Please model this.
Amino acid sequence: MSKEERLKWLTDEVNKHNKNYYVYDNPTISDAEYDALYYELVDLEKELGYSLPSSPTSRVGDEVLEGFKKKKHEIPLYSLNKVKDFADLNKWIDDMNKLTGKQQQFSIEYKYDGLKVVIEYNNGKYVSATTRGNGTIGEDVTSQVKTIKSVPLTIPFKSRLIVQGECMMTNKSFKEYNKTAEIPLKNPRNGVAGAVRNLDPKETEKRKLDFFCYDVLLIENEKISTQTEMHNFIINQGFKTGDYFKLTTTGEQAKQEIEYIDKIKDKLDVMIDGMVIKVDNCLVRDEIGYTNKFPKWAMAFKFKAVELSTTLLDVIWQVGRTGKITPIAVLEPIELSGATVSRATLNNTQDIERKQVKINSRVFVRRSNEVIPEVMGIAEHTEEEKTIVPPTFCPSCGSQLKTIGANLFCVNHKHCYEQIIDRLTHFVSRDAFNIEGLSEKTLQLFYQKFNIAYPYELYTITEEMLKGLDGFKEKKIHNIIESIAKSKNVEWQNFIFALGILNIGKKSAFILSKRYKTLQELMQADINSLIAIDDVGEIVANSIVEYFKDEENINNIQKLFSLGITINNATELTTHSTFTNKTIVLTGTLNNYTRPELTKILQNFGANVTSSVSKNTDFVIVGEDAGSKLDKARALNIRLIYEPELVNLLNENG
Ligand SMILES: [Zn+2]
Model:
């Protein structure tokens, strides 16, 4: 192979691996191997003094641009009309059917909440990119968008093509970026706008954006007759499309789809703010026509907002079970995802400083399904602002606070009222020792009357003691005594969670319970072996090590055992799991797990989770809307596991 041929080969090879990584999420070589190819190409281009137009090294230029050039859109971009509820959506679907005189099919796709961009290709090559702007005139962002790895620089289609899509920052890139950013981004959406509309393309590249393509605006020498065809065409050109595309004929089906996505949207790696429904048949679209602003054949259904701005009225400092002091923002109440929100966490004092929020600032507040509302950052400074001053003494017990890492702590574990009650509440909760009948009020009473401050002391409670309490009738006493007794044999993962170690939630407890089979093992785990576990970072690892270093904690654990607590270890089962040493592929959407979650769970059982089906695959786990992997698995006669069976197997094994 001549050097020129080698250059061509390297260009194609690196582009191929880029696509595998950034578009298909399926790398087939290691990062080191990729780097070796990439830098060989860089050197060879330097040596030969030229590079091919499609060269991956050309994605980022050295030039900082002087300003944004305005650019007129060849095809004006329409906005979408919106429906406000399902009744409206039904009516629109009926109207479309009536207007065309027959029942239409409708496509349903995500409505991305990023930055709209139009990209032009000619002769199979990337030509230019333009922001949406006002729909008629946008800004030239050709160099910026070129740095986005999921934008193909070459495509198989050789005539002119103009596509529309959305530049997005995935949650993963957002978190990564904020880890080291001097000024943290408020949300992934702001991250995108600032990155694409940046005069330095190197900045764009740093944000690691993605591009999701969903529309063909212009295509020469080829006809596309349905949205489905368009979707497939886009995929075949090597664009990323997100993995959701559905067809429906009735309003009821559309409603089910939209409600389902609304429920799981927080688990997606990209922000979507609704769904887009279009008449699938492009040929009847012209018949249906346009208003001044919108195509009549498309409709957006917006989800209720999850992030809004409001005024931060005050900050209160809450004392948690470990003594950690958490600043809680008191907000002017707002409606968020169907609930009234008047409190939100500010995490810790360092976070307050980073986010630059003050009392009387307008702030962004975010609420997701499973997470408590959080103040995301400043929306607007006001003149009445006052700096948030962290306390020096514990708001519950008055003792001097200590700064440990980013947090303030009350170390008066023995006599700090809020700490004690939170500690006991945590211990009796469902995912811990699951002691029924012990409400927060009852625990407060136990502390006041019997000085019960540590969980083990709950096991010293007798029937005699309870008989003297107000409102404690025979039946109630009996139930409490019984549920305390019943809780004495506890599952291993619940035991870990119940310890109340700082930063250890239910999920971490589960992961630890799989990795360490006994308390002894967990207590002896060092930082390095803890960090080696997926999903366990330095902070969590440190919390665990610190916890077991503390003699008081060890004492309290021993007291639990001396009062008859036993742990139900699942040791035997785990090592003989159905999944141990098996090669497993996941396909389709599952109801109970996200893919990353399930991957971790299976890995913890010792499975090898891979992304493509081959004859070496042992099982394929099949969710809804499984695609080509399912076909391949059937062809190779590989065992298929559907969700109900999966849930059973995991329950048996765990
Ligand atoms: Zn205190």
